[in-house]
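# nightly structure sweep
# worker-07 picked up a monomer target from the shared queue
# config: single-sequence mode, recycle default, output format = structure tokens
# input follows
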Amino acid sequence: MENGSGPLAVAFMADRVREKVAALSEAVVLADGGDLRALAALHLEFRELGESWRGDFAADIIAACQRAESALDTAAAGSPGELSGAMRVVSECAGWLQAVICDDRDPRELPALGGLSDIGSAAAEASSSGHAWEEKDVLDPDPSLLADFVRESLEHLENSDVLLMALESGPADGESVNGIFRAFHTIKGVAGFLGFQGIQAFAHGTENLLDMARQGSLALDARILDVAFAAVDVLRRRIQWVAAHGGAAAPDDLIGAMRSTLERVEAAAQGKPDIAGQEAPVLLPAEPGMRLGEILVAAGKISAETVDRALRSQGQSGEGMPLGEALVRRAGVPAKEVGLALASQKKALESAATGALKETVKVEAARLDRLLDAIGELVIAESMVLGAPELKRSLSPALVQKIGQLDKITRELQEMGTSLRMVPIRPIFQKMQRLVRDLSKQSGKAVDFVAEGEETELDKTVVEKIGDPLVHMLRNSLDHGIESDPDARERAGKPRTAKVRFSAFQKGGSVCIEIADDGRGLDRDAILAKARERGLWREETAPSDKEIFGFIFEAGFSTAKQVTELSGRGVGMDVVKRNIESLRGRIDIQSRPGQGTTFSIWLPLTLAIIDGMVVRVGKERFIIPTLSIVRIVTPAAEAIHTFQDKGEMLRLQDELIPVYPMRGYLCGDDSKERRLFVVTESEGRKAAFPVDELLDQQQIVIKKLEEEFPPIPGISGGAILADGRVGLILDVDTLMKSEFQP
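# output follows
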């Protein structure tokens, strides 16, 4: 049984569904048609069953559930005579579902259920005749049902906004249309239970329009989307009124907005021209911060005395009545004028919030570099001050607090300075997309390029230097990875059009850039044979996959049988690796025959700062990047083994790890025994570095070694430590490949 889909899980889920249907049938028998809470619960049960059903006879079962929902709508909104007939339909549907799901009856052997058109006609007629808008002055719905209705309806409308925006910005998506349809369908049903006939009729009309769109009888063009947006907006206003005023009747301007919007909906459903804009209100002049009364007075709609009178009545009522309501109820101002002023006030606030553009200033890169260098010097100076023994001897509580505040500000300044050099890697994505397009036409291979994570940010220097290595890798992916014969891909169960995915994401202090294809994958045997031929692997045992895949980065290494315009000369991948390692990055490869290859490039967020572990070896200080450290151990003496021609090995949890002695290579040699080891990992291989002491773990500002110093293998730079001394930063990858390895 995997992922809960084995036979036992399927049988368990089937029993649960049968129990649910049986309980639903029992609830229908016991239901009181006058109990809105019971009808609402039944409506929800039928809807969930229809939406979740994935078994046999899906179309029939979904239709039966929808028939029961429509009957419950009629039961909630209809007359006593309609209530009785509707509940008989609900009972009929429940019995039919029990026979099919619980008793395993074939639907073709059962009497056919009626269609949906014969149910809910009263609600449809109400929406067209207009009497559904004549809501009661005061409704008294169940408080708990009302709260749930408001919350769920606003969530449905918010989700509808998202789905409509997706439809507007992309191709028509049936699931998105279904989601919007279900939102209005649910609101319609619950509104009917609670007695909000206007909301029910409005949602019913919009639901009909969306049903035509999802059935394919109405093109989902820009006009239909505009109408749907308008329906969502006006229904949200109506629900918000319910949230604020409960069952109180909605104001005339809101009812008028619902009427006019529903007319647009019905016109769109009938293919008539959109009537929007015939009476489009012109907003009143308003500035951000203007109050409602000021807007109306400035526009000449009312006098200042009218506002004062409304304010006085507002205070006398003792009800906390909003000014707009006081103007309408106490001062006799038309509700339309007040609503227009409120809309103008809201528009002014929105314009003020969105109209302020962010100012940008162009700065020379050299100035930015000097600023970052100065921030780095500040961090170093602060560390030296905090580490001074004279300061430690005279620390008082007040001084400790001030030093903590200084450290906080310095770190924030350091983070802001680092962020100034961070830029999105979007330009690289655009370059890669164009490259794939050109190479696809050049090679005659149909390739679909997928980009993900183009907003990911990297240090500007990294972005500038990583472009060429990625071009090499993408060219190799298309030439070596993607099959040239679409028929061969089809026979292998893959689409004829290949896919290349280019993605980037941040994880911890690093950014990963992945180039993945669904091609033939790396030929492990061919790579190993070529490596043996070139003398790169002489041992009889087969190397690991990581070691085999690592051979492709050797200079001049190629398994291509012929040289093409794209690749095959054995140059490129070695340059890729050197360039990435120069950025303190690494490459991981995952490949499966016939399924494709993924190259993962891990890069630091910035080249200026690293997290490092400061260690002491003899009298020297070294810094090991924490990203390379696996663990730090103090093993027993018997865990250190000496092998002929292989030097020392550290046995750690049944794994032998080579020991790389730093004494005599990077610092002076002495006979002191080491019992502390820093275990690191690079390209799947581990190494143990013996050290004398762990001093600190901190962020290190990297300093380049001066040009007059000869390059030292295994050293990537230096850093000024808290005591003012210089510590050398170890390049673990280079150390594991240098001549001093055991």
